[in-house]
Amino acid sequence: MPRIFIIEDHPVVREGIRVLLMGGLGCAEEELGSSGSGREGVRRLLDGDWEILLLDINLPDMDGLEILLRIKAVKPKLQVLVLTVSDEVSLIMRFIKAGASGYLTKTAKADEIVQAVKTIMKGKRYFSTNVSEIIASKLAGQNNDQLPHEMLSDREFTVLRRIGSGQSIAEIANSLHLSPSTISTYRARILEKMDLESNADLIRYVLEHNLSQ
To answer: Smallest Cα–Cα separation from 37: which of 57, 59, 56?
Structure first.
């Protein structure tokens, strides 16, 4: 049985996933680790011998994409199943390109979550039906018109989402372990690439395209 780690900031959801995996997979309690903090989760993942990560992407202290990129750079063999509320196509594609082994929305039923974990345990990928349809549509070229936020780098995209959730430059700098001036530079690039003028424009755009944290 692989050792599975969960990063999810809502305690009830986190505990529910633990109970689900213990019942559905027969995991022992010591084979399951969890954290409600992105930073703590990254530290424990890097320090421990974990094989599968169940990752929520909307965390208060660290962006899920940032977590995935950081973990994969050090532990490329770690299998990561994203479990989140968002089915926004560009978000899904970014996580796939960053190395996610699966992507489920939180509308998934309990047995599908178990099945997804069993699938990636075998080294395969798992995507819920609606996510698979979104991916197929994207790859088939039905969404050829590139949206402004799809031109952003992963770091710029992370900063955009955090601005869209109402975080200040200082708060974003602290969460990403960067200087405020660096975040301001990213903000300027984002505005230029997206042909927008202010934070209000960015917040409006994020909300309209369902990109918020």
So the answer is: 59
